[in-house]
């Protein structure tokens, strides 16, 4: 699986936060997941320990995102 650098991850986090402020019906995990490249998300889809799309808690989303998608954060 391809992983993001810290700088790339931070950029996606900021964009997802902005997206949820502009569209309150979106969950943070949903916004973040939807903007990530497919090669980053392909191995986490459907895995409850890694997939953060449906999580309601931003803290849970960030934990799963950094462990699953950011290089050096395993």
H/E element order: HHHH
Using only CA atoms, what is the Rg? 11 Å
The main sheet comes to: none
Q: Assess the beta-strand content as a share of residues.
A: under 5%
Q: Tally the structural domains.
A: 1
Uncertain segments: none
Taking the alpha carbons of the first and last residues, their distance comes to: 12 Å
User: Can you count the helices?
Assistant: 4
Verbal overview:
This protein has 74 residues and is an all-alpha fold. It has one domain. The chain has 4 helices and no strands. Helix 1 crosses helix 2 (28-35).
Short description:
With 74 residues, the chain is an all-alpha fold.
Descriptive key words:
mainly alpha; 4 helices; 74 residues
Topology at a glance:
Layout: H1 6-22, H2 28-35, H3 38-41, H4 58-69
Helix pairs in contact: 1-2
């Amino acid at each position: 699986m391809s992983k993001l650098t810290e700088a790339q991850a931070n950029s996606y986090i900021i964009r997802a936060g902005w997206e949820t402020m502009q569209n309150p019906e979106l969950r943070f995990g949903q916004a973040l997941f939807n903007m990530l490249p497919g090669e980053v998300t392909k191995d986490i889809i459907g895995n409850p320990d890694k997939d953060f799309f449906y999580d309601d808690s931003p803290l849970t989303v960030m934990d799963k995102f950094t462990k699953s998608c950011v290089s050096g954060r395993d």
